[in-house]
Amino acid sequence: MNNINSHNCNLNVSYDLPDEIWAKVSKVYERMPGWIGYKSGIPYWFGTDEDDVFIETSVEPSGLSFYAQMNNDDWTSWIATFKLEASKILGFDVGEPEDGYM
User: Fold this and answer.
1) What is the pLDDT of residue 69?
2) Threshold 0.85, pTM exceeds
């Protein structure tokens, strides 16, 4: 089945990290599958919020927040890859605070 579902994820990438870390986050964005760039300052993958399938992210006080519309398997694979790549490039374990990542 190719059912499109909504997904949310908040990661332990704090809004108040130094600029040099945020520059690395941008590099992670660009390396991820489906990267299409920024629209009105918002990073997007696969499409924009006007499309059926897309991922977008924003920086919130609670951390790096993702919203996606895609099938479950594709989302699970994509966000796992993002966490792995971000952990390597940023130099700390990137994950969801509710899973113990601070």
Assistant:
1) 97
2) yes
Listed in sequence order, the residues at least 6 apart from 18 whose beta carbon sits closer than 8 Å to its beta carbon are: none
Give the Cα separation of 43 and 36 in Å (integer): 8
pLDDT band for position 97 (cuts 50, 70, 90): confident
Cα 21 from Cα 7, distance rounded (Å)? 25
Look up residue 31 and give its two tokens: 């390396």
Separation in Å, CA 34 to CA 9, 16, 18, 44, 61: 18, 27, 27, 8, 26
Q: Which residue has the tokens 């897309």?
A: 54
34 neighbors 46 (Cβ within 8 angstroms): yes
**What pLDDT does 1 receive?**
47
